[in-house]
Amino acid sequence: MSLLELQGVAKRYREGQLERVVLHDVSLAINRGELTVVWGLRGCGRSTLLRIAAGIELPDEGVVRFDGRDLASCGDGVLGTGIGYCQKLLPSGSQLALDLVMTPLLASGLASAQARSRARESLERVGVLGCATMRLSALDTSETVRLALARVLAHEPQLVVVDDPVQGVELLQRDDLLALLRSLADEGIAVLASTVESTALSGADRTLTLSEGQLRGPPLRELAPVVALRRANARSAGA
Q1: Confidence (pTM)
Q2: Which residues sit opposite 91 in a β-bridge?
Q3: For a FRET experiment, which of 3, 24, 52, 148 has its CA 20 to 30 Å from that of 158?
Q4: HSE on the CB side for 216, CA within 13 Å?
Q5: Contact, 194 vs 200, CB < 8 A?
Q6: What is the Cα–Cα distance from 231 to 233, expressed in whole angstroms?
Q7: What CATH number belongs to 4-216?
Q8: Helix (H) or strand (E) holding 10
Q9: How far apart (Å, rounded) are the C-alpha atoms in residues 235 and 173?
């Protein structure tokens, strides 16, 4: 049984008197330890697809199952535990990186010492333990993406959903981020990502195209060439 299954998913939005179909009859199955990347142009519905896959939005038609359970009947119980949705962090924040990872853990009921320990482990896992005492405003875009991943991974999810992880990241830092996503999948975590950048398809087990509301095969090679991964090199010194 696949960890995540979307069957016949459709999503529509009202815009005045008009109705815009964002997703139409979308089906997708993702297994544990699989890295799947959905490529598409801006405005094609990639973010909507990921929010539905994470259980943040409900489809108008179809069903989404996580580990055999219908997300529509699970409420918010799966999001944040079994499913980790990676939200982008605004680089203008003044909160310390360690505190940003600790706060949701404290809210879940963990004792302060345990939350701090798990937060540090999560920061080290994504290569930014050296940023633990830095304010969010002092981090570059790549580091904020890693920090967002750390917040998710601290809850030990089975599935990580991340929308456009390389957006705004410098070209020389993108391969390292993609290598991190690949390593998470190699550890057995299912990863579903979206992108508008051709280079973000590197290292994926499966690449799909979202176009006209439907999932199709891999992007054309001339549109989305796959580039080789380089060894990760991020800040990881102890804080």
Answers
A1: 0.87
A2: none
A3: 24
A4: 11
A5: no
A6: 6
A7: 3.40.50.300
A8: strand 4-15
A9: 12
